[in-house]
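ingest -> validate -> predict -> emit
validate: passed (alphabet ok, no gaps, 294 aa)
predict: started
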Amino acid sequence: MNLLHRILGTQKQKKKFKEIKTEGFIYATLVFSHGWNDQSEHLNNRASVILDIVPNENDIESKLNYWNKLYYDNITRHFSIGEEQLDSISTIINITKDKFRELYKYWPKALSEEQYDQIFDRLNLKFVQFKPLQEQHKGKYVIKVNESFWKIKTHNSTLLNDIMNTYEAELKDFELIHNTYESAMNYGIIIVDRLCNQRDPNNPYYYEQRIKDQLRKFKNLPIFNYNIIDKKEELVIGEYNRIIKDKEFELKIMKETIEVLKIKPFEILKIMTMPNNGQHTAQAPHASRTVVRY
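emit:
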């Protein structure tokens, strides 16, 4: 029995990827931080991880609202609200504007739907965005964050917050959408390493433990050390290729580990081609309703 089988045990092989039909994807929008307690800035023309898929047009608004509220529930982890912004919502959450420098101490643990609606209407902060499926992406493999894996409680948050917020690290579609399953799997492993292992020093522990909870024979979580700041496509691809070459064995371990996990840190989804030469089938009369808030 080879080393990988000894590490992974004899768990039954799961299907490697799901095939999906989709109208498009929910992406995390980049937020730029100017410094401690300085008001943050949304970079609406830039995005990072794919958080969700949108099966049909009717789901766009509900999925945007769902993910945007997750950001608002922990807004101090993602955005520095200014004094005037806090003053505009102070009566909703019963926090006076003088608390804006220590808002993390006072922000509600979870907003009600009514509070979220009121705060959103006043702040209009959109942490997520919908991008429709592009013709060139049909038949390809997409890397999507698996929310349920990252709902890991830490001492003051959940690990999901670090996965949703890439801290100014933009991810392009060539990193998230691939021609082959193998390429998507390699990039997915490295991206999760960037979002988790290269953050809070406790994050790798939680990530590793989440795997061990499902696979007792898993040994140690490898570190892949993506290390490039330049955003030029050829240099980014070169860095991924370097890791894929230098960490071939570790990538094999993680690939075969993830494939047998019931709850995976990310999902590989193959985009199915639509019938009628890529044209959409007839929609219900209400499917073309306007998305009001986003």
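The radius of gyration is 20 Å.
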